[in-house]
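Changelog note: in this version the structure field was regenerated for every chain. One regenerated record is shown below for reference.
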Amino acid sequence: MGGGTSGLEAACTLAEVGCTTFLLEKKNTLGGLAKEIAKFPAKHRIADFPAYLEQRAKNLKNLITFVNTEADVEKVANFKPDLIVNATGSKPLMPGIKGLKEFTDKENSNIYSIFGTIANLNNFEFENKEVVIIGGGAVGLDVVEFFAERGTKVSIVEKLPMVGRDLDVITKIAMMDIIKKYGVKVYTNTSLMEVKENSFVVELENKETAELKFDYGFICLGMTSEKTVLPEIEEYFGEKNIPVVNIGDSVTARKILNGVEEGRLITNTLEKMGLF
């Protein structure tokens, strides 16, 4: 269940060792978050990996893929599985901050999650525009790079003492160069307190409150696991002693390679079942 990079790796691995494998993906395309992030111009090379996985899947006659198909107990049961792999990925983290859910990714709103941002990459205006990004991790800095290089005035807000804490050293240096080159305003030790229609209310490092106005606002507070259907799947198939393995970002949001490794190691489950 789930056709992102983790699910594709697990499906391909299972098929390659001889299992008849069914892959269910609720969207109309495979590749998951990796394919979406690759829509940022500076991240286009990431698309090579999900493209490789998709081609690998197409070459396996015993791997049958269903897109536009959201998994549930009834659909999965129809396949009479011996093993179920849940790889339903992650979704943007939306904590209970006043106004956050009310304004983010809503019709006629100018506040976007990472999914809303990617969906509108070709619709944004840049000249004489000001953007504020909440969240200084890898995703937030991707948004910084996209807008700063196009002449937009950019500010980024991070709760921790520094931005880019989760980046590798080379990427972090490159991002610091971009921040310096384009005069990006960085607010560290700063917390989001409220989301308004055209501004973010934040608590600054000195505990004072400030209102940061924008033309576009972006919420990049990280990702959280998406496993809505998993409890029902585990309960139903657990009663039938059918293993259910959860992998990838649906365990916890991490780097692509972490989830892919778990997909590859699905053979360990087959060994425990005495099938490999």
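Spot check on this record: The CA atoms of residues 30 and 54 lie 7 Å apart. The chain has a mean pLDDT of 95.
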